[in-house]
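Page header: ASSEMBLY MODEL / two components / 869 residues total.
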Amino acid sequence: MKKILSLGLVRGLLWQIAGTAAGALLVTGIRALMGLNPWGSFLFTEPAWVVGALTGVIAFVWGVGALTDWFKWALGEETPEHREDPPGWEKYFGVSLDHKVIGIQYTVTAILLLLVGGLFALIFRLELAASGMQFISLQLYNTLMSLHGMVMIVGILLGVAGVMNYLVPMLIGAHDMAFPRLNAFSYWIAPPAAIVLLSSLALGGFDTGWTGYPPLSTRSPVGIQMFFVGVWVSGWSSILGGLNLIATVMRLSAKGMTAFRMPILAWASVATSLISLTATQLIGLSFQLVMFQRLLGMGFFDPAKGGNPILFQHLFWFYSHPVVYVFILPGLGVVSELLPVFVRKPLFGYRWVAMSSLGIALVGFLVWAHHMFTSGMNEYLRVPFMYSTLLVAVPTGVKFFSWVATLWKGKIETPTPMLFVLGAIVVFLMGGLSGPPNGVVTTDLHLHDTYFVVGHFHDTMFGGYIFPFFAAIYYWFPKATGRRMSEKLGKLHFWLLFPSFLVMTFLMMRVGLLGMRRRIADYDPALGLDFWHLLITISAFLIAASVLVFLYNFFRSIKHGEPAPGNIWRSRSPEWQVPSPMPVHNYEEAFEVVGEPYDYGLPGSTYIRFNGKSH
Amino acid sequence: MAHTDKQTAFRLGVLIFVYLAILTALEFYVAVAVPSVVVLSLIALVKAGLVVYYYMHIYRLYQETETDPNSYEYKAGTLRLGLWLFLLSDAFAFGGLAVARFNLWGMTRPPLNQVLGLIITSVLLVSSFFMNRAETAMAHGERRNFVISLVITLLLGIGFLVGVIGIEWPSAIHEGITPSSNTLGAVFFMMTGMHGFHVLTGVIFLLIVLRNGLRGLYSAERHRAVEAAAVYWHFVDVVWIFFYPALYLIGTGV
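Prediction written out in full:
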């Protein structure tokens, strides 16, 4: 018992419960003193729940110990930037300042959240398998469908943060992130945020979809406030993580690592971080405005008070479109990173691939209104946003041409990570090709809010994030544990996932073209879509089965995987030139970059040289 | 040599403040005499540029010479970059509020007391001057001057908060502009509230710096916390440089 209580996570959770109760009771007391009704339909009133959620998050972060160092700093005490972590598994359940520990914390939390989001999808896919309502209520369907979206998004954001946190300092030769305490803080506000987000299930749920558009979101149950608070707080995780990463790459790169000798993954991470650093503020603001509208009657989006619901959509999509590039850019970076290793050829057009990430990120800021072609915004905005949207295809095309040209006449090896890289390319191509019909005004007016969009979106997410994420786990798993995951199970995972996923999204696009609206709990049997929906549901369950294989492989291999202490992929990258698992302070001796990073197969070329000096 | 350096630095602070004061007066005159959005925006941009360059020393970001990553100076540079990135991020939140203001109000504005607005704006501007003075004093090791200037900055900052929350808000409510009345009230309270929250965090930051300064934790060479507090404080001022015309000057009162 004492040992369990010594874990930071457990302390944090207890503090969060106490903090939520304290905040909620405070507001309830104030309301009682003011003569307002102190109790609401879910015990507390809505303001009490909102304040309680916020104080709960703060209490969690305090209880876990992520603020201690800053508190000491404010009191004028110095604290070390590098602490010794306890050996063994305990360090993953408390505040550690080591970027590798934090990266693993992020990754495992992300996997958990993705599983929760996936479970929600399985439940409502079961409901959609046939027309007519089967076994869940409309409100529960709406809540699960909405939470599936946002839980997955938060999960992906944490997964992206995990990959970047774990890998980028290693790839650029840093011993840690630029701000280790901020790094720990960015991670530790995510778990309470996820708890707040999921608690909306218990508080009446909400029915808006993950977009939370007013006026619907101003009429939903209290659950929507938990959704807003949860997203708002996890947004801070994203902002501060992005800040940290940019500072790390700009300040801590190894000697000789100029911009065009940086790994592609570092480029992609910087591009991603620029988006999450800046644009995230706008989703935070838009949700905050709806929260205030609900709590204080401020009429930002209420036409009766002169407000404008379209304004919400502009603020919301200014983040929520670029954020899809946050999801995919690191994934595409992983693809470019791994491809040359398994083709044993230089990456084609390295400079252009490097810049294309930034290109996608920058153009991505100018396209948001393509989600609003049918919203009733000013019509003259449609055409410029259509063209800016199509412009995204140019830097993305650069990546595709580079991948194809890299594969061309290469000696392709196909261990599991490479299978997922190839899968990512195919699936992302499908997502890319189904994009322009949504981006062009004429076709989008027909396709808007249909299942076609759902199919397109899942193709881009799986191609740009899920497949590369799996590739990265299979590839860098030995770096973290010193053991490799089972090839056999890995291949089973891939061959179960890849075809069933393609079937699922193709059919989603098909039913969308045939008139299936997205987000609805039921459909007319006269549409004749029952059979296709059943197939989609079966594919979804096959995908879930493949994930179970992955989980078994993952947890089994930590202890029982085949030992892999050395450079098993024959990579040129610095992290593989030192033993696995990675030493605590990364590189015992500093290295210097003396050549190009991806010149595989060119005789006599070297990328890095260890120069014997320690940090 | 060091002596003249010091004098130049203090004099520059005064000179920039005089420019800012003249521009603020000009801004007020323009708003009353020839309400031109273009001229008002230009004046705000020039004011913000002066503060960002001369008070926040943005050029320090790219004028670094230290290369040893373990040195105090290099770490101070990393922290400086981190703070500027944070401010960039924060600017997007304030930018979103400004977008909301222009979308919802257009060329109208609430009937607020413009003189009161000018007074609280001046209070914040003067506090920026003293903040700069405090930082310059610490950079030259004048601890006494540093403490006095910092205390004045703090008092002015608290004065700004009192002015906005204690005087401006009640008088707006008295005029019928409440958070829930219409978008005029909603946006006004949101913008001043969000900015006021940042002033409050700035005041807390300055209190910490004052406490640690009194305990002698800073010196002419090692005072990155003072610099960070100053940059943050000036940033809050820069935000107000844009919010002031947006709330009080641009458009016609309804």
